[in-house]
Amino acid sequence: MDRENIGLLLAVAAARGTSAANHALRAAPGVVAALDARAYSVLEQAVLGDGPSQRDLAEQLRLDPSQIVALVDGLQAKGLVERRRDPADRRRYAVVATAAGQEAYAVGRLRIEDSLDDLLADLDPAERATLHDLLHRIVRPAQVRIGTRE
Fold first, then answer.
1. CATH fold of 6-142, please?
2. pLDDT tens per residue across span 12-61
3. pTM for the complete prediction?
């Protein structure tokens, strides 16, 4: 019997994860409710990163640079990130989380983790760990975390 197309399975799993994350964020208190999974992903990179540039973010998240500009603009308008000039390269702006951004990230992360618990409920802890490791192996070689600490 033929196996299902793994690309389709990955796409459907990603869509379900994104939908669950969006639902979890909308139910969160305060400014977190105004975020979607894409904006949250940019915020996460700003919180965990060492001042990634918008170009770094576009490469890491596989989004068009114009989408990153719009997402960073939205996060900046909410007071969650700042663009700071890189002292080593005055042409480059680093996207850095503010204290409010770090707090919003922490709240959002808990909400998203809970939503993933529901999404992955049919997997036992060992299977979840294996899934995490396999996804990590797929993502990391193609894109080393840009501007982030591991």
1. Arc Repressor Mutant, subunit A (1.10.10)
2. 999 999 999 999 999 999 999 999 999 999 999 999 988 899 999 999 89
3. 0.85
Distance between CA 36 and CA 4 in Å, rounded? 30
Contacts 24+ apart (CB under 8 A), 93-99: 93/53, 93/54, 94/51, 94/52, 94/53, 94/147, 95/42, 95/45, 95/46, 95/49, 95/51, 95/52, 95/53, 95/54, 95/57, 96/46, 96/51, 97/43, 97/46, 97/47
**pLDDT one-digit tens code per residue, 72-104:** 999 999 999 999 998 888 888 999 999 999 999
What ranges do the domains of the chain cover?
A: 6-142
